[in-house]
Amino acid sequence: MIHAATGRNLDTASALETQCGAMYSETLSAHTTYHQQSSAAVETRPRVWLITGYIRICYSTIRCSSGFGRRLVTSALARGDRVIATARTVDDIKILSSPNLNVLQLDVTAGFEVIKARLDQAAKIWGQIDVLVNNAGVGYLGLLEEGRSSLLEKQFKVNVIGTLDVTNAALPHLRASKSATVVMLGSRSAYRTERAGLGFYSASKAAVHSLGETLSVELAPFSIKVLIVAPGSFKTEGIYGQKFFTSNSIPAYDELRNIAMKRFSAVPGTQKGDPDKAMEVVVDVVKGEGKAKGRPWPLYLALGDDADEGIRQKSTKLLRHVDEWGDVVRSVNFDT
After folding, report:
1. Active-site annotation, residues
2. Where does the record locate the signal sequence feature (predicted)?
């Protein structure tokens, strides 16, 4: 009897889903032109950017980090836009002097209600938020068995939960904008996952990419664009400044852990990516200028030749699987 009732509910749900799906498809279709239109459609009014993770900590006795956030701020301001730069702490931060820049304290791990209150406050500065850049993030290095779920939770709390909380808190203001964009800072590590020690970080960035893909569909009816940025290796990557997790060392992993630690410690200073060029391209895409002029809107924006290589290798591997195992893959449907 339970199964029968469940079956009727599912049939009803299916019918409703079909009806609603058709209506939703029409809504999406109405916005397809907007999302596929050339990035050359440039607005003249200043946009208001809210950028998380402008800088982690910068005391007067410590040199400010030169991350993606600072470069985004600089580029957006240089093009006549307004910026609300957020950071976990703003005490003694050295920032650019500009009437178009405001700095706001924001901890992306504070929880939705706290974040919403801060973003509501931010929106009152210039009466709007047009571009949200989810730049705040951290990378924890460690082997999966040694780091356990506790390190995964710590990683996801910033990169995934924090990103979703900030995005959800900003959406009421973005919907009110005439031209809104959500930028998700992902990573080529979302595709290049087969590296010992990078599992926690890679998993979080893969989740960020997945959230961005779903958001691109859910936000289409509101003409809100989504851009998933997947940078390769740049000299700003804070992940290499994190110590490798060794608090739960398992002797069986000693050799592998040492190899991974040496590999990651050798990276800083060898990255080929120019962060200035990368963030200029991001602003180009959002504004439909420069290298983005005349091009269709990209859901994904890979940056760096290593990002290009990582995507191609992942795609090739998956295609090889369905080529070699295709008969098995397609052999599990019900017989007709």
Report:
1. 201, 205
2. none
